[in-house]
Amino acid sequence: MSQKRTALITGATSGIGEATARLLADHSFRLIICGRRKDRLEQLKRELELKTEVTTLSFEVRNKKEVSAAFQSLDDKWKQIDVLINNAGNAHGLAPIQTGNVEDWDAMIDINVKGLLYVSREVLPGMIKMNQGHIINLGSIAGKEAYPNGNVYCASKFAVDALTKSMRIDLNANGIKVTAIHPGLVETEFSLVRFKGDEERASAVYKGFEPLKPEDIADLILFALTRPAHVVVADLVVFPVAQANATIVKKDL
Q1: Which of 162, 143, 147, 140 is nearest to 97 (CA)?
Q2: Is 204 in contact with 9 (CB distance < 8 Å)?
Q3: How far apart are CA 70 and CA 93, in angstroms?
Q4: Calpha distance 106→152 (Å, rounded)
């Protein structure tokens, strides 16, 4: 393995993905940062390349052709990917199954499940050829426990949990580590997207307690990546202290 590992991060333009990119840059990982928003990608690249080598890929993870074309565009020096962080994901809406929006369902399944699969399919052949690598999939407590009105979002994150377990089995013979990290409440753009730009409703989710920060999850990702070669952090659930499970949160309002 080269001294500097190359890590590819999806959803790197905000939240957990951006925090992870910044932390890994501080620890000398070479970075392939991915996202839809080219302006944010380029700004982040300008900041991080003062510390490490960085390149960008802009594509929609839900679009198989865009994913394939993006990976084909990589220069040869970037084709050896040691670490894949499947971070891109979304929640759209919070409604009972009987009144859910079909477009919201499609977006969550396409991005959270298909997107993870499309990107992994591009990276895995190289890892298999090297007989080493590390995949980290960002799940959610919603992938461990269903909650009211979470239905399709929960289903998509249950799928991430199942895919992570299956990857670990299928890739066992190739020496590839597979990790899942399942956060509870993290203050990011997550709720703003879920509530379609309603800032008041989104901010209310995090009032009355101290939620996790993107940097907290980035720190756990770095921890998983820096364990000894014979150690894999397989499955990790993390909450803020105020949270007990998917639905119980102590709030001082």
Answers
A1: 147
A2: no
A3: 29
A4: 9
Enumerate the active-site residues.
153
In tens, the pLDDT along 92-134 reads 999 999 999 999 999 999 999 999 999 999 999 999 999 999 9
Which domains, from first to last, does the chain contain? 6-238 (3.40.50.720)
Q: What is the C-alpha radius of gyration for the chain, rounded to an integer number of angstroms?
A: 18
- Return the structure tokens found at 223: 């921890």
Contact 84, 132 (CB under 8 A): no
User: Residue 1 pLDDT more than 50?
Assistant: no
3-state secondary structure of 136: strand
Q: Compute the distance between CA of residue 67 and CA of residue 117 in angstroms, rounded to an integer.
A: 11
Give the length of the chain: 253
Contact status, residue 186 vs residue 217, Cβ threshold 8 Å: yes
Query: Is 87 within 8 Å of 138 (Cβ atoms)?
Result: yes
Query: Based on the number of CB atoms within 10 Å of its own CB, is 80 exposed (0-12), middle (13-18) or buried (19 or more)?
Result: middle
Whether pTM > 0.85 for this model: the answer is yes
CA 250 – CA 67 distance, rounded (Å):
41
**φ and ψ at residue 127, rounded to 5 degrees:** -65, -40
- Sorted by sequence, the CB contacts under 8 Å of residue 35 that are 6+ apart come out as 10, 11, 12, 13, 14, 17, 41, 56, 58, 88
